[in-house]
Amino acid sequence: MKYEFNNDREFDVIAIGRACIDLNAVEYNRPMEETMTFSKYVGGSPANIAIGSSKLGLKAGFIGKLADDQHGRFIKSYMQGVGIDVSNMVVDTEGHKTGLAFTEILSPDECSILMYREDVADLYLAPNEVNEDYIKQAKVLLISGTALAKSPSREATIKAVNLAKKNNVKVVFELDYRPYTWKSKEETAVYYALVAEQSDVVIGTRDEYDVMENIVDGKNEDTINYLFSHQADLLVIKHGVEGSYAYAKSGEVFKAQAYKTQVLKTFGAGDSYASAFLYALISGKEIETALKYGSASASIVVSKHSSSEAMPNVEEIEALIAKNEKIEARS
Amino acid sequence: MKYEFNNDREFDVIAIGRACIDLNAVEYNRPMEETMTFSKYVGGSPANIAIGSSKLGLKAGFIGKLADDQHGRFIKSYMQGVGIDVSNMVVDTEGHKTGLAFTEILSPDECSILMYREDVADLYLAPNEVNEDYIKQAKVLLISGTALAKSPSREATIKAVNLAKKNNVKVVFELDYRPYTWKSKEETAVYYALVAEQSDVVIGTRDEYDVMENIVDGKNEDTINYLFSHQADLLVIKHGVEGSYAYAKSGEVFKAQAYKTQVLKTFGAGDSYASAFLYALISGKEIETALKYGSASASIVVSKHSSSEAMPNVEEIEALIAKNEKIEARS
Amino acid sequence: MKYEFNNDREFDVIAIGRACIDLNAVEYNRPMEETMTFSKYVGGSPANIAIGSSKLGLKAGFIGKLADDQHGRFIKSYMQGVGIDVSNMVVDTEGHKTGLAFTEILSPDECSILMYREDVADLYLAPNEVNEDYIKQAKVLLISGTALAKSPSREATIKAVNLAKKNNVKVVFELDYRPYTWKSKEETAVYYALVAEQSDVVIGTRDEYDVMENIVDGKNEDTINYLFSHQADLLVIKHGVEGSYAYAKSGEVFKAQAYKTQVLKTFGAGDSYASAFLYALISGKEIETALKYGSASASIVVSKHSSSEAMPNVEEIEALIAKNEKIEARS
Amino acid sequence: MKYEFNNDREFDVIAIGRACIDLNAVEYNRPMEETMTFSKYVGGSPANIAIGSSKLGLKAGFIGKLADDQHGRFIKSYMQGVGIDVSNMVVDTEGHKTGLAFTEILSPDECSILMYREDVADLYLAPNEVNEDYIKQAKVLLISGTALAKSPSREATIKAVNLAKKNNVKVVFELDYRPYTWKSKEETAVYYALVAEQSDVVIGTRDEYDVMENIVDGKNEDTINYLFSHQADLLVIKHGVEGSYAYAKSGEVFKAQAYKTQVLKTFGAGDSYASAFLYALISGKEIETALKYGSASASIVVSKHSSSEAMPNVEEIEALIAKNEKIEARS
């Protein structure tokens, strides 16, 4: 089963939200207190997805707000360098700073992030900086949940969804839940439900769907009944190492395994998953294949040092899928 | 043409939003600088509508947050006194104050209001203070636009709309636009559009619809095309002394004249209009009649000193309508 | 013993701080919930002291910030009307409101105040609105403790003290402690100590001195040792109905009794005390006499409805003192 | 001429204020946009001075507030490692972050800093976290001007000065002016004057004294007249490459040249100057010698990569002084 897009659009995907700086520990397997050097990368979920998509060959654009400083200029220049249209990345004029994420890699499965998200520029994107003429050129508008966390980015994002619906642009909602950005779970649930009910495709972990529904231990069955009664027709629910599911409104269900890899750190898995899944879907591949692309891409990124810089190309993804299918065939 | 409600509900209308204090100049026709005495009344658009509806005989409830002080207790006691269910009016525990409106009555058509709306209790109503079990008992959930102006009242209101839709409660949206409460027109437009698109009935002045559409000199034709493409099926658009229109999704259009009166001040016209219109609609009267009820009620209130205390009963409204129809018949 | 002032100055006293609105219950001896009418007066400790001083015949000026609205204009006009120089009362341009105090007169000794002090204009007086050329024309700069509660009024007040010291203007510090205006007792103590150490005369209740020293049950003996080791040479410590003491650095101690009266409410006692005490001191009366003036003035104001409007003239004060001295002589 | 201290104290110097993180560009001589790796050091003026003093052999303590995260723990551990008493460095419990300074080294004389100072932990030091029992053990309390920039650190610092004066601890005020931390120049001037008037020793650049006096192109002569009329008895005024002056209240004036060096970057010069000057003064050296120590130490630090880690020991400082005196002797 394939998913249909409006093909007469200039951009495959336009993402909206944060583009930040990751400062990744150069020295691994130790507490951050003992890390003395950090490498700089572009980060932030929607930026990573745009970068990953662009490296896979999609035509990507980005709507966001950048600090008027060296970090902001680095981000714009890097994203432009990988082929993203940055014409709608505006520069903040009120002194807000770029969000930062210092990563600590204690061990492959013990990673933590020290965030600087206080009054960051990306959350100051304003509704009047979101342009209908831009959005209507896209097949997909990619929303990241974190962009809903604070005003005026919240209103800019709601406006973008409204304009996308009006112009038959598919809304893909990556839940991307970061608790430190929100005031309360109740507030998160209000905005997650609001946008999910208007989205065509929703992607998230089971835990993130629980946040949206403001419940504990939610069931996929209930989630799909809820969202399919609104406007969604494709839901991806990820269950970590147990793999991920895609539910179509038509009733079909697809499942993909997680690919084993030599894990260096856990960051970036969700973003690489989303970018490869979107690439495959927009390229006209079967939903089932798209899930494999997502899993393979995630698997590659967690074995490398960065999130954005490590985004794989199509050959790497397909090689990993092929290798795993051989293994499966043998076993 | 009548408008259908779900009749097996305990409450005719539950309003959500602010309940405040009006301090009306005892001495008229002078600048407030020279006013030395003020009379205290309950005020705030949704409180006034609930009070007006209750005095007309509807079973009304209210969801709101009150300051933990003498003004808050006065409001609760007054509203309970006119028959409103106050079980969902919660008391603020963080020291926020009751909103105040000092009115100046310079002349019948030169009135101004000096507002105290900084960090007021009503805007601190939180999503977890909005109960599904309460809302689902209502025929109508009445939303006042001002409740959307600030968090967390904004999220509480969005949640209330969501719960109303889920439980087949009609959502009536009184636009009630107060510029001083909002950060920007762009932000207002985002939330007004969001709620109007989900409402069944929208009531406002032409100017207020322009705010919702973020345009100047909007046309009723465009407004009804826009909102009828979403969920609304009845729109009331008021044009001041030129009268008001009701547009039904079925295509019918109704018009009512404004009734002439001895105007004392202009405050309270919109609230008394809404309460009488709702009363007539819920009582099973024709839409055209409901418009007359609204106009007559507004006409009565602007001839008196307060907004809430002056809300008329059915006899007064019907007497005014009858009197005017005689005049029209003669002319 | 008399207190010396620099007599070649145009103003007897320039006060700095808040000028607000009191809304006094017209109906007495009932809870505010049942009060339906309020009378408007100018209020705020330093404004009341300036008004009281001016009515007694002192040449007074005022440094403060007023809301750009009807309440602000009323205050300016009223203060000008009683003879105060208002040339240094600036108008706020950022939408801040006038502070309000609703008074409840439950019984003569059960009074409470419902304050509106959120983001009020008086606390936005900025350092650049305090002029050395103005301050240096005064015999006395009167500081009210509440002006230290928030920035930028805090810095404006510290600057005013600095300019007064530089120009040999006596600094009189009325502690005027209002807990709701402050973040913490610790913060209050820091600024109260800072200003008290630089003041020539300090006036307050025993409780207010305790706040300044951040202690409980402080002793006058310790307080005078502490402040006389800095720059003060006259301290007035009030003990309510037990009367008040004046301590001079020279070692002399004076005491005055509180005068019995028919108390209507307790508001305004401190302000009327300070204005009459200052009047007597600046007029060259003995410190002991000045204490009597303070007590008599307080006694008169608590028997009347307002704080500002009720400020007595010299004849009333002297009549009350004379009457009491006859009574004492007889007993 | 020597400067006298109270020698029966356990600590030579206790500094109060910020301890932060510097992230210094590993790659030099390029814009930060092209810097891909950053090295982590402890930074912040009073922390650097404490570290520098401690490395020179003084017994140092520190009063400050640290983020409850990896950066906060690194700072505490590093400072403890160089011998500083950290018993009065408290941990923030409200989620505030460590201040950051990313340095850009474009060329030896074109350096810039990208600061993260929004809601940082050090500015949340509260008055009740400043202990009299600790301060009274010190010969010197070192105040950094930036600690005055925001509440509650501002009040904590004013309280510390008050306690130092009360206990005969010399107050040394390093003006350390950072414009981005302050709301306005007027506000800065108010607090700088307040603390400078109570300090025994003030150290700053000519530009910083201008900020304190809220003037342009101030003269040293006026500055010393002003501050010597209050409590100061030693002022150090630095004029960049033209050298620095020390003015004693007794009338003596001392001057020191800046030492030539191979400059790598300009950061850290002021802090290294202050630490070596204080070391020499407290060690009983002549004021003139102390100035040379300051200059030599500054010269060494600007030739190295960090501010804190590069703080020299006594041998390095004395070697540089000796080398320069030979050169001077020859010329």
From TrEMBL, chains A, B, C, D:
<dbReference type="InterPro" id="IPR022841">
    <property type="entry name" value="DKG_kinase_firmi"/>
</dbReference>
<dbReference type="InterPro" id="IPR029056">
    <property type="entry name" value="Ribokinase-like"/>
</dbReference>
<keyword id="KW-0808">Transferase</keyword>
<protein>
    <recommendedName>
        <fullName>5-dehydro-2-deoxygluconokinase</fullName>
        <ecNumber>2.7.1.92</ecNumber>
    </recommendedName>
</protein>
<comment type="pathway">
    <text>Polyol metabolism; myo-inositol degradation into acetyl-CoA; acetyl-CoA from myo-inositol: step 5/7.</text>
</comment>
<dbReference type="GO" id="GO:0047590">
    <property type="term" value="F:5-dehydro-2-deoxygluconokinase activity"/>
</dbReference>
<feature type="domain" description="Carbohydrate kinase PfkB">
    <location>
        <begin position="12"/>
        <end position="312"/>
    </location>
</feature>
<dbReference type="InterPro" id="IPR030830">
    <property type="entry name" value="Myo_inos_IolC"/>
</dbReference>
<dbReference type="InterPro" id="IPR002173">
    <property type="entry name" value="Carboh/pur_kinase_PfkB_CS"/>
</dbReference>
<comment type="function">
    <text>Catalyzes the phosphorylation of 5-dehydro-2-deoxy-D-gluconate (2-deoxy-5-keto-D-gluconate or DKG) to 6-phospho-5-dehydro-2-deoxy-D-gluconate (DKGP).</text>
</comment>
<keyword id="KW-0547">Nucleotide-binding</keyword>
<dbReference type="Pfam" id="PF00294">
    <property type="entry name" value="PfkB"/>
</dbReference>
<dbReference type="GO" id="GO:0005524">
    <property type="term" value="F:ATP binding"/>
</dbReference>
<dbReference type="InterPro" id="IPR023314">
    <property type="entry name" value="Myo_inos_IolC-like_sf"/>
</dbReference>
<dbReference type="InterPro" id="IPR011611">
    <property type="entry name" value="PfkB_dom"/>
</dbReference>
<dbReference type="InterPro" id="IPR050306">
    <property type="entry name" value="PfkB_Carbo_kinase"/>
</dbReference>
<dbReference type="GO" id="GO:0019310">
    <property type="term" value="P:inositol catabolic process"/>
</dbReference>
<keyword id="KW-0067">ATP-binding</keyword>
<comment type="similarity">
    <text>Belongs to the carbohydrate kinase PfkB family.</text>
</comment>
<keyword id="KW-0418">Kinase</keyword>
